[in-house]
């Protein structure tokens, strides 16, 4: 019994013993704790324990012994982590950049210029079709991996696979980030009520109103001979549309010609997430600390919008997406919306999902049509006969959905410029998965990035070119139809894809029917790509376009 007090006493004076004790503790911390499981969301607890330990050591042993113990602990801990990741990790045989094998900090390095989707393409060109991009993460460029990872019967899960763990409102996850499949299934049922044909028909009236507001702005710019930034106005159009069909609210940003505070916050928040390159623990730390800033302000604005919409619903009959959430929330036996935090969480998802993703496709559709005047005129010839067919003086989604070239232009734009260029990851089941004959171990984060997949020579002939005919008269230009997944795949595919297609059809058809457009003088179209930012959702760079009203 005297040996323990003697050992403790020795630690006060014996520097070598202090170094040995610290190193041993560091090695054991890695092998017994850090190497097992997922700890990003525990970052605050980990930091507090380490801080408390250093403080206690300082009080008990003094500053110098505590510093020696702590330094040797950290050196041993990170040495053990590095050696394990390089030589003993289950992914040690997969190719990839050396820094990526050692640390997830390589993700922020790749995303430093906001061009993560471009950097991914470079990695696949250099290392092959399965790449180790982080210590426990793989990128896979193979269409066969899509059902393996995302299908309903897949054993892969969202939990611990990336940002999903930290995307929540006071602990309530939105539809896209729900970790439990049963909970997701129930929530999606409520969302789907708001996306049924009858609901879409109701929203279509609002969509046409937004289109006419957009055309009114084009009338002004056209009459004055001024160029318009179509990337900006694509965002304003979809944001105003989201306000109408999501919350029966008028944002009026199209008339203002600029972003409002909520759009500014969306851009800032997603920009910060994009710069982290899937590094999760900083987000988890901020949430644990209850940090406010832009994220806090966005949460408050979202809550205010949801509360106002609920209050209005007590005296008005409003047909919008949030109304379906309220109907479930206020029912005697809710299917999914059991408390207000879930309402607020999915309110934020409406703001994001019905704005940014559609805006990206619209931005690049204007770019491609301005660059390729022939398709613009062919599209005009296709939509002209259906104008007023069902409703006098208007287009309808049902009429436009039958137009082959319009669908092809939208599909080809989504192929080249996929809004969610990186896609969400999944964690492999304990038994692992097999992709293209390659076994991937269990407990590994895997993802199939959309941008490289949609531009792969294995899937598409002339993959970097805008060729709508590949979706109509030249199907041979598509080598692998399964490689095209703009709305993702499986039970977590985009619940709003029919809504998105309706918006794109109507906005493009009204625009092409009313105007001819071209790149403005001095505009070469390069900035829409060079200044694009992959902020989880792609954000197009600026594009100056001149619109001339058709006679």
TrEMBL record:
Record-linked InterPro entries: Cyt_P450, Cyt_P450_E_grp-I, Cyt_P450_sf, Cytochrome_P450_monoxygenase
Membrane spanning residue stretches: 15-35
SUPFAM superfamilies xrefs: Cytochrome P450 (SSF48264)
GO molecular function, one term: iron ion binding
Region forming the signal peptide: none
Keywords noted in UniProt: Heme, Iron, Membrane, Metal-binding, Monooxygenase, Oxidoreductase, Transmembrane, Transmembrane helix
Residues bound to heme: 494
Reported cofactor(s): heme
Family the entry assigns: Belongs to the cytochrome P450 family.
Name of the featured protein: Cytochrome P450
Organism per entry: Schizothecium vesticola
Species lineage: Eukaryota, Fungi, Dikarya, Ascomycota, Pezizomycotina
């Amino acid at each position: 019994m005297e040996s323990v007090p003697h050992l403790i006493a020795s630690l006060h004076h014996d520097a070598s013993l202090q170094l040995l004790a610290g190193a041993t503790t560091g090695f054991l911390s890695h092998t017994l704790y850090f190497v097992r499981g997922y700890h990003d969301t525990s970052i605050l607890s980990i930091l507090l324990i380490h801080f408390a330990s250093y403080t206690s050591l300082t009080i008990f042993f003094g500053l110098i012994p505590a510093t020696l113990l702590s330094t040797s602990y950290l050196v041993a801990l990170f040495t053990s982590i590095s050696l394990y990741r390089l030589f003993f990790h289950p992914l040690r045989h997969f190719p990839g950049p050396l820094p990526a094998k050692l640390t997830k900090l390589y993700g922020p390095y790749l995303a430093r210029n906001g061009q993560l989707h471009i950097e991914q393409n470079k990695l696949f060109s250099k290392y092959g079709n399965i790449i180790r991009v982080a210590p426990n993460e793989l990128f896979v460029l193979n269409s066969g991996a899509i059902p393996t990872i995302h299908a309903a019967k897949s054993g892969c899960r969202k939990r611990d696979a990336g940002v999903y763990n930290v995307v929540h409102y006071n602990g309530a996850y939105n539809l896209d980030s729900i970790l439990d499949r049963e909970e997701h299934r129930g929530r999606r049922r409520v969302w789907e009520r708001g996306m049924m044909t009858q609901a879409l028909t109701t929203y279509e009236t609002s969509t046409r109103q937004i289109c006419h507001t957009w055309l009114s702005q084009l009338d002004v710019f056209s009459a004055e001979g001024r160029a318009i930034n179509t990337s900006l106005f694509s965002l304003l159009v979809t944001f105003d549309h989201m306000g109408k069909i999501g919350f029966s609210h008028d944002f009026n940003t199209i008339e203002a010609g600029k972003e409002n505070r909520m759009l500014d916050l969306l851009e800032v928040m997603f920009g910060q997430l994009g710069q982290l390159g899937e590094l999760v623990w900083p987000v988890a730390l901020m949430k644990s600390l209850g940090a406010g800033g832009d994220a806090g302000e966005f949460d408050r604005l979202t809550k205010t919008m949801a509360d106002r919409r609920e209050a209005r619903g007590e005296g008005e009959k409003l047909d919008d997406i949030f109304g379906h959430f309220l109907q479930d929330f206020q029912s005697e036996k809710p299917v999914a919306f059991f408390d207000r935090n879930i309402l607020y969480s999915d309110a934020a998802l409406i703001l994001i999902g019905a704005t940014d993703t559609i805006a990206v496709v619209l931005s690049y559709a204007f770019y491609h049509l301005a660059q390729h005047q022939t398709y613009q005129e062919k599209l005009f010839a296709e939509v002209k006969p259906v104008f007023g067919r069902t409703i006098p003086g208007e287009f309808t989604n049902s009429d436009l959905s039958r137009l082959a070239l319009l669908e092809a232009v939208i599909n080809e734009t989504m192929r080249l410029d996929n809004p969610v260029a990186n896609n969400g990851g999944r964690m492999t089941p304990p038994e692992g998965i097999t992709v293209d004959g390659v076994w991937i171990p269990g407990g590994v984060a895997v993802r199939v990035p959309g941008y490289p997949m949609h531009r792969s020579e294995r899937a598409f002939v002339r993959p970097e070119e805008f060729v709508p005919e590949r979706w109509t008269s030249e199907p041979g230009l598509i080598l692998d139809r399964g490689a095209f997944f703009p709305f993702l795949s499986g039970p977590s595919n985009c619940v709003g894809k029919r809504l998105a297609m309706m918006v794109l059809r109507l906005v493009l058809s009204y625009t092409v029917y009313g105007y001819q457009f071209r790149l403005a003088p001095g505009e070469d179209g390069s900035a829409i790509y060079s200044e694009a930012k992959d902020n989880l959702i792609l954000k197009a760079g600026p594009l100056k376009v001149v619109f001339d009203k058709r006679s």
